[in-house]
């Protein structure tokens, strides 16, 4: 398998993800490279891709990588903390590259952070990125009143976007 040094066009995020995989003793396969590149390109374009969409793009870039391998790779990369997934309304799940929370912290998969939360319009399906601190008041109120810890990075909140609201 080629190393990231053989792929000078890899972003720093892909190179960092590969480094984290290797540090965790994980193999870096052609499928993993392809998935990381597709997800990184989507993140940079502010796209939110499902497993099916990732599989289609990987097939274009690496025809030898079977779709079932892409699905297993997504699961594995989430388990190792290199990717995060967010559940949307219905059954869709989207994927993002994660960033280590801090080099000084224990590098467990759950210690990786996602830089934003998501909201989804239940009319048109559009997914919007929002700063997680937007939910700070709700998070604090849930903690104080229900002793409930809100995880804004794991599922999108549903609502209606400005384009779909009746005027």
Automatic annotation (TrEMBL):
Entries under InterPro entries matching the protein:
FUR, Fur_C, WH-like_DNA-bd_sf, WH_DNA-bd_sf
Q: Does the keyword Transit peptide apply?
A: no
Give the keywords, sorted: DNA-binding, Repressor, Transcription, Transcription regulation, Zinc
Pfam families assigned = FUR
User: Can the keyword Transcription regulation be found in this entry's annotation?
Assistant: yes
Say which domain of life the source belongs to: Bacteria
Instruction: Tell me which PANTHER family the record gives.
Output: FERRIC UPTAKE REGULATION PROTEIN, ZINC UPTAKE REGULATION PROTEIN
- Family (UniProt): Belongs to the Fur family.
What is the official name of this protein in its record?
A: Transcriptional repressor
In its UniProt entry, the species of origin is given as Terrabacter lapilli
